[in-house]
Amino acid sequence: MNEIEDILATRRDFYAFLYRMYVEEPAREFADDLVNGRVRFQELTSLEINAELSEGFRLLKEFMKKSKGKEVNALYEDLRDEYTLLFIGPFKLPVQPYESWWVSGKLRGEPLVKLKKDYREAGIVKSREFVEIEDHITFELKFMHYLCEEALSADTQERVKECLKLQRDFLDNHILKWMPNYCDALYEYKLSDFYKGIAKITKGFIFLDDAVISDLLDSV
Questions:
Q1: CA torsion 96→208→153→41, rounded to 10°?
Q2: Per-residue pLDDT tens over the stretch 29-57
Q3: Does domain 3-219 have CATH number 1.10.3480.10?
Q4: In degrees, to the nearest 5, what angle opens at C-alpha 100 toward C-alphas 98 and 106?
Q5: Where are the alpha helices (DSSP H) in 91-136?
Q6: Ranges of each domain in the chain
């Protein structure tokens, strides 16, 4: 695997890690790994990480250290409760994880219409199994993961560049317009605990990827 492929694979895997943190509550197996110190947060050895990412990893390692020795089911319930509070309800979510909310001030606003158009042009249709609307943070992170996979499987340099341009446009037109602010709010919310670290890591990786995509486009 050459250097560009290595970077593409690292980005793909990290987007997979991120969207899994938002798509559903952490699994009991994850709680068990935290309690027993078996979690290995993904390293970005091929990329130069920034202060936000470093702080996020520090917070997660601190959370894991604090979790050692806890009863697994108790920690699992804590993680479930935090996820439910932040992403499910039943009451109004304290930090809305939707692009439209942050860009237009309301759910299902004009940004969602533009986003659906971009998905259609890329050949993406939401699965019926995914209950959230398409501007949920999970869907946008999953779309970047998909574009990274497309670049890795491309059989021509032109196709790689096309996928990178789609990623560049998606970051500029969508993710960078709202996700850093969302991450700040998620981090600052008084009842977030585990997700404080996830918020910092998400924001830090977005800013890192902003620079990495530009470098990749100059290299292919």
A1: -80
A2: 999 988 988 877 666 666 778 999 999 99
A3: yes
A4: 105
A5: 99-104, 110-121
A6: 3-219
